[in-house]
């Protein structure tokens, strides 16, 4: 099992690609750099700028299908990296919940293990709505026993995050911010989800 080929598709908006990071790693690159596979894993970041969970739900299955391998030969895994565009687009929390539920249910039916990363803080004016959205996503994931990373609560008042976000114009973090997101992912069940021993991450 340890030398099995692993393919990980990350679906989400532009935050999944590390927009604003001078090192162009984002949180995904930092997480994979700290994840040690017996056989190199394949990571595919499939991002669409400005995407809502409704739009994500409409495209993710077709886009991942061409990158995943036959289930008997490859360990296929899905990371759902949720952004903040549901708030800006005026989607109801109920609709956002349903969108994530549908994604996770289809992944489960396809026997694809899922991992969800929630939306990080952005504009202070949208703070309460992003917090509500994150809580709703967490509940959906919990009901399906899918790991969920709450990036909003730990970062909403984090000085380094807020400074990094302000430097980037209030929308995208920089190296420090993506590093914080990566730390949260690595410490919220990432290695257990992959069936790997916990790396010693400071």
UniProtKB/TrEMBL annotation:
Domain SGNH hydrolase-type esterase: 10-179
Gene3D superfamilies with a match to the protein in the record: SGNH hydrolase
Protein name: Lysophospholipase
Organism: Promicromonospora soli
């Amino acid at each position: 099992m340890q030398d099995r080929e692993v393919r990980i598709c990350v679906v989400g908006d532009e935050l999944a690609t590390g927009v604003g990071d001078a090192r162009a790693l984002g949180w995904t690159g930092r997480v994979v750099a700290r994840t040690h596979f017996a056989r190199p894993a394949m990571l595919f970041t499939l991002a669409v700028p400005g995407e809502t969970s409704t739009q994500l739900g409409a495209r993710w299955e077709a886009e991942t299908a061409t990158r995943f391998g036959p289930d008997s030969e490859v360990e296929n895994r899905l990371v759902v990296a949720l952004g903040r565009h549901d708030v800006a687009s005026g989607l109801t929390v109920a609709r956002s919940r349903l969108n994530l539920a549908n994604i996770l249910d289809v992944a489960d039916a396809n026997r694809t293990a899922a991992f969800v990363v929630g939306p990080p803080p952005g504009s202070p004016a949208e703070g309460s709505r992003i917090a509500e959205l994150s809580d709703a996503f967490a509940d959906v994931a919990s009901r399906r026993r899918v790991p969920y990373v709450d990036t909003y609560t730990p970062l909403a008042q984090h000085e380094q995050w807020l400074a990094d976000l302000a430097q980037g114009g209030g929308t995208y973090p920089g190296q420090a911010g993506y590093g914080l997101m990566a730390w949260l992912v690595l410490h919220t069940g990432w290695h257990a989800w992959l069936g790997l021993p916990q790396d010693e991450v400071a």
